[in-house]
Q: What sequence folds into this?
């Protein structure tokens, strides 16, 4: 059989490749790439007196970065978004790792039951989660002070969602509560796939469970740590639903829970007596795009390359 | 070598279990897992038990299970009278299944092309299609809305299906390409020798990557079902509301009626949880199948 | 489908040529269509579905009407998106002044100059929904709402309290309720912000800035937010802080409603629109008193705000049905039904109507005792950036949260206005 020869013989034009690629490329280009590019284009336009959109170059970006009305809002949203992300990295992912480590141990009975139940909040809609927590944290219902009272801490109860100092942290923790299942599953998948031989070998060498975990397992799942990190980053800088459901687009108190997603929504659609501004909205989307792209590139060229070196 | 090592290990493991230190460790692990499970379920539990209580009882004794005196289904009456949850469920199902079908079909076809053929621009095409993994489609919302209007699709389920498909495709193609590459070449070449067309070979490969298709479906299903943003912007009409948007609107309308709020939360939540419990084995297998490297 | 539509339009046009009386009285049943009403009045959904729409369908049984509503704070955003996307309903509930004016100028709202029945509204009633030069009217005025305080009469009797007549008496009253401890004095939270601005500042403010005199002064530049009456109003609002409920910083508007309706708070600072919300919920007697003026005041002022109207989406495919609906909204029948189904929304039409609800009558009676005005930020002042209304929300909430002094709050708003509004520069 001269396969190679046969193949090159009947090879006029690979129509089938086009057929295979066409549906995905068309849908993806029309509903994702084109809108993204068009949004970036829109950020270079602004309405004139006759409400027509005219080209203004980078004016919108300059306004967003320097204008006294826009700059503090943008800065506030970025700083809050960083805090939001930091809390996820410091709370959600370590808890996810801890739970995954416990669930990956063969000695624990009922692992699959725990795993199923702990993942439950993740399958719920953010809208439901937001409403549930708003009810639970409402001073009217008083659940939070009752729960604190169980630990004798009721004097520390606060209107968590109403204070500038606590609102953002509270919202971040609600988000952590909902999404902790995802890092847990990813870590669990990575931990399970570690060959038993490696661990047993370390045990034989007299390592403690703690030592085995950090010296062997954690190192082996480092690529997953990177993936979880970048997924958290993209998810957090794109977040909107939870804060919108709980604090509305005003992202109060005093913008202390305003992140890029709510800032974008409020600008684009307007609020109360303030009309929406599509071109400035597109500009904020442009900034979000840059931030997310930077983060992803840092991951790809910083973290992933180092991972590759370790593997080699 | 390996055989030799296994023997002592089993012994260590057996002896470890009966060490007091180990029992403490086990108890500790269970305590942490139990505490976290309680934390995960407590809010859900609280909503469900209070949804069947009268208004005064909700506020007076939120933790008490409903008793004959406090039993009251007025919240459910309001929900069933004022919101069309059946229709919302149908809409959500159509959108989710429609988008999943498109993602799996178009995604597997494109992945097959990328994995199977060496053509000029293959790498560039792969990169182009992977771009969307890291860029949230929401940033293009303004233009998507304008596009949907130009196509005459506002307030249709089709608009939602297309947008969700577009946002799900990049990751689907990425995952499926990895899997398709692992299908042994001999298999395909043998079929070619037998004169099978390229399309037939694609259909032949498809069942072999079923686990990957499952993973892709699982990854896309939950976010599509739960999305609030695009239904709110592209299809907010009463006839096209999804469950998530329907619940959101209803909650907004009856926000000071806690009976109705708790009942609608329960109605929107419980079917999802039941479905999840039924399919959790598949779902978790999908998530942990190592698709993400 | 298109042909059917064309046929319908032609039929509708032919019908419109037939003398009006005949069409309306007998042939109304021939007109078909389906209308969607966009509204922020989620509290009214039940009343529209059960009372108003069925009454309309008595005349036009073949016109379907659906009521679609949003959270008040989501309404403008959702509406703008739907108008831009061409998916908005046929009938648009109009906010007063600048916001609806902008919609009209963008071509989203149809002009209603020639709508039969518009003569039933005075120029004052229409003032919130006409262009600056008065040449076009684009919404049918529905109702005004009057700000004031609703209280738990049973609780007042129990504690031996009386309606306060001056601000000083009001504060003493609040202190007495606080000292007693059974009830929270004021049911109000700040997390939603608009309560602080609307039910706080705009409620009591007119007494300090002397109603229309102050409001028009802001517009012509002779008054400022950070001096005189407008500053005093911030100070007066700041004095409420000790009387707000536990955890008020996180209480939402619905939470406050529940707090009052469950009998846990004595006074609800709000307005007449709340009557229809509370009536089915409470099991105690309710009373109401107007915002108490300072002791040295010569007269009292109330905010009698032209709040709500209805317009037609210019892009509607059911123009004929929509106009019939709007025409019906100008009638005595609608005014009567609406005012009584929603006690506390006072019809703006010239029809004589009788109100059944005693609490609504109480609110309405203040028109005879006090001078009326509307909210300070609605006309003209919310056209620029930063938005005057949004800023009032922010600073009043922060004032009540104890993060700003009255002077600081006032300065921020004044500075914002000076930023773009020429008469203030």
A:
């Amino acid at each position: 059989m001269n396969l190679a020869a046969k193949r090159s013989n009947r090879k006029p034009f690979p129509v089938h490749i086009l057929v295979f690629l066409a549906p995905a490329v068309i849908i993806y280009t029309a509903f994702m790439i084109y809108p993204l590019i068009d949004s970036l284009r829109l950020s270079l336009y602004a309405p004139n007196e006759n409400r027509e959109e005219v080209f203004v170059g980078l004016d919108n970006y300059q306004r967003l970065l320097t204008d006294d009305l826009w700059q503090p809002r943008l800065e506030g949203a970025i700083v809050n978004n960083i805090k939001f992300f930091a809390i996820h990295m410091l709370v959600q992912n370590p808890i996810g790792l801890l739970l995954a480590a416990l669930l990956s141990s063969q000695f624990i009975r009922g692992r699959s039951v725990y795993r199923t139940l702990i993942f439950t909040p993740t399958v719920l809609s953010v809208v439901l989660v937001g409403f549930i927590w708003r009810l639970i944290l409402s001073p009217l219902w008083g659940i939070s002070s009752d729960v604190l009272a169980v630990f004798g801490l009721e004097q520390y109860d606060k209107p968590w969602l109403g204070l500038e100092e606590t609102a953002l942290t509270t919202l971040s923790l609600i988000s952590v509560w909902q999404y902790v299942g995802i890092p847990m599953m990813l870590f669990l998948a990575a931990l399970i796939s570690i060959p038993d031989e490696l661990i047993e070998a370390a045990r034989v060498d007299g390592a403690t469970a703690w030592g085995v975990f950090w010296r062997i397992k954690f190192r082996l799942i480092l690529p997953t740590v990177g993936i979880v990190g970048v997924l958290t980053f993209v998810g957090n800088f794109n977040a909107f639903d939870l804060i919108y459901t709980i604090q509305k687009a005003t992202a109060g108190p005093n913008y202390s829970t305003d992140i890029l997603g709510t800032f974008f929504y409020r600008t684009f659609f307007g609020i109360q007596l303030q009309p929406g501004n599509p071109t400035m909205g597109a500009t904020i989307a442009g900034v979000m795009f840059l931030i997310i792209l930077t983060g992803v590139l840092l991951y790809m060229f910083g973290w992933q390359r180092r991972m590759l070196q370790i593997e080699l | 070598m390996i055989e030799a090592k296994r023997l002592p290990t089993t012994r260590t493991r057996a002896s470890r279990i009966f060490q007091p230190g180990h029992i403490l460790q086990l108890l500790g692990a269970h305590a942490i897992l139990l505490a976290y499970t309680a934390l995960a379920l407590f809010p859900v539990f609280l909503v469900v038990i209070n949804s069947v209580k009268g208004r005064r009882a909700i506020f007076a004794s939120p933790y008490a299970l409903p008793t004959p005196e406090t039993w009251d289904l007025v919240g459910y009456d309001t929900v069933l009278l004022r919101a069309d949850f059946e229709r919302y469920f149908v809409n959500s199902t159509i959108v989710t299944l429609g988008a999943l079908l498109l993602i799996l079909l178009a995604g597997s076809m494109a992945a097959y092309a990328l994995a199977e053929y060496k053509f000029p621009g293959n790498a560039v095409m792969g990169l182009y299609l992977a771009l969307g993994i890291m860029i949230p489609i929401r940033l293009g919302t303004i233009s998507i809305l304008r596009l949907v209007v130009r196509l005459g699709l506002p307030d249709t389920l089709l608009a939602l299906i297309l947008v969700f498909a577009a946002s799900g495709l990049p990751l689907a193609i990425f995952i499926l390409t990895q899997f398709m590459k692992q299908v042994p070449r001999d298999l395909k070449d043998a079929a070619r020798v037998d004169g099978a067309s390229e399309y037939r070979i694609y259909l032949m490969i498809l069942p072999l990557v079923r686990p990957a298709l499952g993973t892709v479906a699982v990854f896309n299903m939950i976010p599509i079902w739960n999305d609030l943003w695009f239904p709110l912007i592209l299809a907010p009409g009463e006839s096209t509301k999804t469950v998530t948007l329907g619940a959101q609107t209803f909650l907004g309308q009856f926000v000071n009626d806690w009976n109705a709020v708790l009942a609608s939360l329960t109605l929107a939540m419980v079917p999802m949880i039941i479905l999840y419990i039924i399919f959790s084995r598949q779902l978790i297998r999908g998530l942990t199948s190592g698709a993400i490297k | 489908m298109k042909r059917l539509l064309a046929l319908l339009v032609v039929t509708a046009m032919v019908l419109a040529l037939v003398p009006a009386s005949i069409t309306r009285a007998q042939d109304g049943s021939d007109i078909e269509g389906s209308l969607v009403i966009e509204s922020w009045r989620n509290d009214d959904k039940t009343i529209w579905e059960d009372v108003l729409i069925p009454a309309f369908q008595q005349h036009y049984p073949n016109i379907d009407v659906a009521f679609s509503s949003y959270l008040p704070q989501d309404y403008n955003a959702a509406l703008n998106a739907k108008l831009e996307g061409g998916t908005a309903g046929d009938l648009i509930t109009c906010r007063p002044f600048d916001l609806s004016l902008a919609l009209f100028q963008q071509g989203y709202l149809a002009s209603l100059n020639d709508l039969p029945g518009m003569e039933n509204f005075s120029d004052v009633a229409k003032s919130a929904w006409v262009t600056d030069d008065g040449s076009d009217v684009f919404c049918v005025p529905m109702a005004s709402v009057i700000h004031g305080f609703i209280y738990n009469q049973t609780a007042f009797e129990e504690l031996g309290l009386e309606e306060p007549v001056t601000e000083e008496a009001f504060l003493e009253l609040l202190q007495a309720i606080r000292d007693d401890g059974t009830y929270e004095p004021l049911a109000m939270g700040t997390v939603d912000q608009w309560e602080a601005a609307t039910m706080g500042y705009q409620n009591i403010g007119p007494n300090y800035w002397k109603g229309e005199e102050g409001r028009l002064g802001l517009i012509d530049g002779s008054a400022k937010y950070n001096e005189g009456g407008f500053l005093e109003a911030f100070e007066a609002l700041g004095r409420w802080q000790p009387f707000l409920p536990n955890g008020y910083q996180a209480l939402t508007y619905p939470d406050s409603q529940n707090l009052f309706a469950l009998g846990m708070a004595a006074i609800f600072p709000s307005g007449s629109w709340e009557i229809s919300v509370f009536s089915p919920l409470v099991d105690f007697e309710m009373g109401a008193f107007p915002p108490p003026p300072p002791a040295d005041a010569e007269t009292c002022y109330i905010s009698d705000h032209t709040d709500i109207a209805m317009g037609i989406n210019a892009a509607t495919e059911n123009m004929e049905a929509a106009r019939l609906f709007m025409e019906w909204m100008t009638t005595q029948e609608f005014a009567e039904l609406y005012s009584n189904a929603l006690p506390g929304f006072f019809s703006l039409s010239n029809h004589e109507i009788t109100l059944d609800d005693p609490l609504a009558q109480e609110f309405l009676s203040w028109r005879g005792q006090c001078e009326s005005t509307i909210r300070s930020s609605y006309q003209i002042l919310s056209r620029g950036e930063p938005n005057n209304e949004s800023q009032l929300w922010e600073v009043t909430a922060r004032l009540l949260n104890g993060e700003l002094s009255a002077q600081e709050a006032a300065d921020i708003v004044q500075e914002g206005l000076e930023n773009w509004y020429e008469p203030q520069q």
Summary: Chain A touches chain B through 93 residues (CB under 8 Å). The mean pLDDT of chain A is 87. Chain A has one domain: 70-311. Strands of chain A lie at 45-47, 53-55, 270-271, 274-275.
